[in-house]
């Protein structure tokens, strides 16, 4: 594994491990409730009502990074679950349903009191219903109304004109769904949601994402990329799961300051940088070394992923008179912006231009339907913007069919032949 | 063969294929991607519904834009028709929120128009009927069903009153009763094969209700004189089918498909739609609760399967490459079938393509097992 270049990265990793250990203590020793949730649910509500929330995608990434996914995926197959079903959203379920098939990282997930998911794709209702049955927990769904008015340049509206971005009926629907979630959380925790506290929390989330916006600008404008994509992700996501908290704000500032120092000092993640790469899609959690594998041979550095870029564009909401509506405007559309037309192609092409991207690698994850759709539109938008594209066939948590050497050879050929690196 | 069967089969099979041949004919047509659009509303607005179906017809234009292995054949057919200009004269394209694939189909169609790839396509709208729980879901569904009515009324220049919608519900309920009568002929001592009856049942969506009722009742009369078919009786489960490819493959090996989990033939198991109060709300509720598809809650689907298991000897579970949902139901279904002593087979091939050798072998083994079971149990 490539060495960590930033002190902030080590601090973020240590925080996550400690946070998880504390969660286990709270659940096992103090019998406190916690929730297992999809990455796109509003974590702020859980935190304000003192029900800690663990991101399903984060836990799946941890399992994959610890190389423990294979046994679980084999157990799923042995139970008759076919290989076309989404592995990313279900690996956490597998870690409980087929727990004997792998060694759970960090002691494993304790039994949750609640599961919560936004019904992004068709399988979510199934996976979380099965998961809830497995651990005897309650499942709260957040459904969402489909967008009928499709605004391509969504990132120009989200911050201040979010009431224009999300149609009124969709906003009202999502507010009602979030209020139903709050009612369940209040019943579990015995607390009442303080809307003033929600407003203050969202204001702090705005501050945090503004800091990430600064970091993004630093990376985009620096002569050479100051921080590897892997380390961007570690710092950003450790912060996003507890966004708006004291630690999150403090860590975001520390991360920004360290990046700024590196830029001011002319420090590059890869001193021999010649090619700036973009990664489109979720991370290859089982092979994160992939992202540094082309630095020595081609001076090719992964500069951009959605994880940092989506923070400022997807989360900032100014005008918090009605904080639940502001929060709902973020929840109403989420994955759609990252994957599907008209939203994703234009945004990603715009980001490529801003970051002076030379080439893009686009994940083609056959088993993850929502992430896999829209890919051809994104590829064409990037090629139109003058960015050569290489699709990468792989799964973000399932390494069983992944040939790291072959994948690296394919990228090297692409860099040689299409990018001229 | 009965003339009524021919007429209804042709109505099921040809409605989508005929689009693009006559602008005059197409002008009153609403095209959709799955039978989850309230047909009563379409007809109350004096329009005709045509539902896309998968077929073996190649879809090169769609394949250039739809990622491989993610979209069912019916969506590929619809997109191909749109890009090829065959939907340019229809009144409306309305895509229901039945599945993620359908929603993405809507987004793609709009993107084709934005990008100038399908400039001649008819106006495309989303019918955002959700199938999850919650009081806010019902409010939303009623509103979007009313919006559908208003939109279609504006297209057709005929805005039906609530009483007209009620009348449409009533005559459609009579057609549903005719479907139920036909479906009953499949239970116990089946008088017709699934290959023969599925298109007749599915024609419910394409044929005006009074005509459908007359023809379906004629079919029922004709079939009642037939001798019962022999062979083990099979339920077709898993990803909902919209054609007879699997029926034919199973029945050519000596079994009879007596039921399938599909919105196409589901009026045969549905109750009437109530029309005593708000007819729009009644339709929203009915289509939310009944439409078989990936977004139908798992509990409702289980209830439907359990009802069907009472009258079959074996189950074929179709889980094609694009399935993202029904495969999750398999372990529980397998355990239930095992507990009941019912044999089953899982097929992974495309339900509309040529049967793979593996799938063919699975069916043959299943039919053998079901035949033995039937002989043993009488």
Report on the architecture of this protein.
Chain A is α/β, with parallel strands linked by helices and 421 residues long. Helix content of chain A is 53%, strand content 9%. In chain A, α5 (91-97) runs parallel beside α6 and α8 crosses α14. Chain A is globular and about 60 Å long. The model of chain B has no long low-confidence stretch (mean pLDDT 95). In chain B, α1 (3-14) crosses α9 and α5 (73-83) runs parallel beside α6. Chain B is globular. Chain B contains 15 helices and eight strands. Chain B has a four-stranded parallel sheet with strand order 2-1-3-4, with helices on both faces. A four-stranded parallel sheet of chain B has the order 6-5-7-8, sandwiched between helices. With 378 residues, chain B is an alpha/beta fold. Chain B has a domain at 6-156: Rossmann fold. At the A-B interface, α6, α8, α17 and α18 of A face α6, α7 and α14 of B.
Give a nutshell description of this structure.
The complex is a heterodimer of chains A (421) and B (378). Chain A has 421 residues and is α/β, with parallel strands linked by helices. Helices cover 53% and strands 9% of the residues of chain A.
């Amino acid at each position: 594994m490539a060495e960590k270049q930033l002190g902030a990265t080590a601090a973020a990793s240590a925080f996550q491990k400690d946070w998880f250990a504390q969660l286990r203590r709270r659940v096992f020793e103090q019998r406190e409730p916690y929730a297992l949730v999809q990455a796109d649910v509003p974590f702020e509500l859980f935190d304000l009502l003192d029900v800690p929330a663990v991101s399903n995608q984060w836990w799946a990434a941890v399992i994959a990074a610890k190389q423990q996914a294979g046994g679980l995926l084999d157990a799923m197959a042995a139970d008759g679950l076919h290989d076309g079903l989404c592995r990313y959203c279900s690996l956490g379920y597998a870690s409980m349903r087929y727990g004997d098939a792998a060694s759970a990282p960090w002691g494993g997930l304790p039994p949750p009191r609640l599961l919560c998911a936004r019904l992004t794709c068709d399988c979510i209702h199934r996976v979380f219903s099965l998961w809830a049955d497995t651990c005897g927990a309650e499942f709260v769904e957040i459904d969402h109304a489909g967008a009928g008015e499709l605004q391509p340049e969504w990132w120009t509206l989200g911050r201040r004109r979010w009431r224009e971005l999300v149609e009124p009926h969709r906003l009202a629907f999502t507010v009602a769904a979030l209020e139903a979630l709050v009612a369940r959380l209040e019943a579990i925790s015995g607390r009442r949601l303080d809307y003033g506290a929600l407003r203050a929390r969202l204001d702090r989330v705005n501050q945090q994402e503004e800091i990430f916006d600064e970091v993004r600008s630093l990376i985009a404008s620096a002569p050479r990329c100051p921080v590897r994509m892997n380390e961007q992700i570690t710092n950003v996501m450790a912060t996003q799961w507890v966004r708006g908290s004291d630690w999150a704000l403090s860590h975001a500032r520390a991360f920004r300051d360290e990046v700024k120092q590196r830029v001011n000092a002319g420090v590059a993640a890869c001193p021999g940088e010649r090619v700036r790469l973009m990664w489109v899609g979720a991370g290859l959690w089982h092979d994160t070394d992939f992202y540094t594998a082309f630095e020595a041979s081609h001076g090719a550095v992964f500069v951009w992923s959605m994880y940092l870029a989506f923070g400022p564009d997807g989360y900032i909401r100014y005008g918090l008179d009605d904080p639940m509506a502001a929060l709902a405007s973020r929840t109403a559309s989420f994955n759609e912006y990252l994957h599907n037309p008209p939203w994703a192609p234009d945004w990603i092409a715009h980001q490529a231009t801003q970051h002076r991207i030379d080439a893009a690698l686009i994940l083609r994850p056959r088993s993850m339907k929502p992430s896999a759709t829209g890919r051809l539109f994104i590829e064409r938008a990037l090629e139109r913007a003058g960015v050569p594209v290489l699709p990468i066939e792989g799964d973000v948590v399932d390494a069983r069919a992944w040939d790291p050497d072959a994948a690296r050879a394919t990228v090297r050929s692409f860099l040689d032949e299409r990018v001229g690196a | 063969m009965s003339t009524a069967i021919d007429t209804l089969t042709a109505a099921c099979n040809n409605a989508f294929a005929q689009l693009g041949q006559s602008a005059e004919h197409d002008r009153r047509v609403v095209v959709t991607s799955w039978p989850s659009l309230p047909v009563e509303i379409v007809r109350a607005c004096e329009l005709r519904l045509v539902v896309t179906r998968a077929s073996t017809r190649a879809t090169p234009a769609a394949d250039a834009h739809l990622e491989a292995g993610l979209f069912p054949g019916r969506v590929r057919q619809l997109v191909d028709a749109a890009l090829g200009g065959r939907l340019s004269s229809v009144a409306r394209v309305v895509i229901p929120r039945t599945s993620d694939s359908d929603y993405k189909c809507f987004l793609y169609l709009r993107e084709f128009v934005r990008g100038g790839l399908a400039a001649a396509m008819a106006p495309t709208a989303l019918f955002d009927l959700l199938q999850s729980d919650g009081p806010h879901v019902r409010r939303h569904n009623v509103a979007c069903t009313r919006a559908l009515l208003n939109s279609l009324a504006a297209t057709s220049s005929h805005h039906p009153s609530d009483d007209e919608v009620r009348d449409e519900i009533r005559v459609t309920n009579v057609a549903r009763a005719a479907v139920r009568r036909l479906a009953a002929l499949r239970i116990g001592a089946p008088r017709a094969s699934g290959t023969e009856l599925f298109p007749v049942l599915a024609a419910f969506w394409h044929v005006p209700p009074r005509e459908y009722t007359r023809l379906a009742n004629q079919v029922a009369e004709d079939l009642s004189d037939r001798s019962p078919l022999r062979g083990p009786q099979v339920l077709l489960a898993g990803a909902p089918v919209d054609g007879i490819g699997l029926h034919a493959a199973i029945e050519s090996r000596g079994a009879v498909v007596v039921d399938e989990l599909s919105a196409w033939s589901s009026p045969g198991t549905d109750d009437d739609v109530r029309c005593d109060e708000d007819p729009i709300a009644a339709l929203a509720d009915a289509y939310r609760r009944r439409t078989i598809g990936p977004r139908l809650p798992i509990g409702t689907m289980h209830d439907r399967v359990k009802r069907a298991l009472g009258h079959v000897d074996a189950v074929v579970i179709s889980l094609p490459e694009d399935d993202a949902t029904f495969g999750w139901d398999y372990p529980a279904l397998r355990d239930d079938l095992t507990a009941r002593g019912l044999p089953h087979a899982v097929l992974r091939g495309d339900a509309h393509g040529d049967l793979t050798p593996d799938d063919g072998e699975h069916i043959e083994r299943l039919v053998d097992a079901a035949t033995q079971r039937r002989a043993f149990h009488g």
